[in-house]
Amino acid sequence: MLINYPYKFRLEPTEEQETLLYHYGFTCRFIYNLALDQRNLSRDPNPVPALLEMWEKRVADREAGSPCTMRSPI
Predict the structure, then answer these.
(1) pTM
(2) What pLDDT shows up at residue 72?
(3) 24-27 contacts: CB < 8 A, separation 24 or more?
(4) DSSP alpha helices (H): ranges in the chain?
(5) In the chain, where the domains are located
(6) Of 10, 14, 29, 54, which has the fewest CB atoms closer than 10 Å, so is most exposed?
(7) Rg of the chain (C-alpha set)
(8) CA angle at residue 42 from 46 to 44, to 5 degrees?
C-alpha cells in the first residue's frame, strides 16, 4: 500500500516575487469568482442581460435624448 505524506515548504520570496504572487492569487480568485457567477446566472430563470445588450440599450437611450440611467453613485 502506497502512503502519501504531505510536505511543507517555506517560501521566502523577494519583494518582486511577492508582488507577482499576490497578483497571480488575485487574478485566479477573480477568474474563479467570475466563472462561479456565470454558472449561477445560467441557472437563473430570469437571467441578467448581457453586457453588450445593456450597452446597446444605453446608446439607444442616449441617441433618443433620454437621460442616462446608469450613473455612478459618487
Answers:
(1) 0.47
(2) 45
(3) none
(4) 15-43, 51-64
(5) 24-64
(6) 10
(7) 23
(8) 35
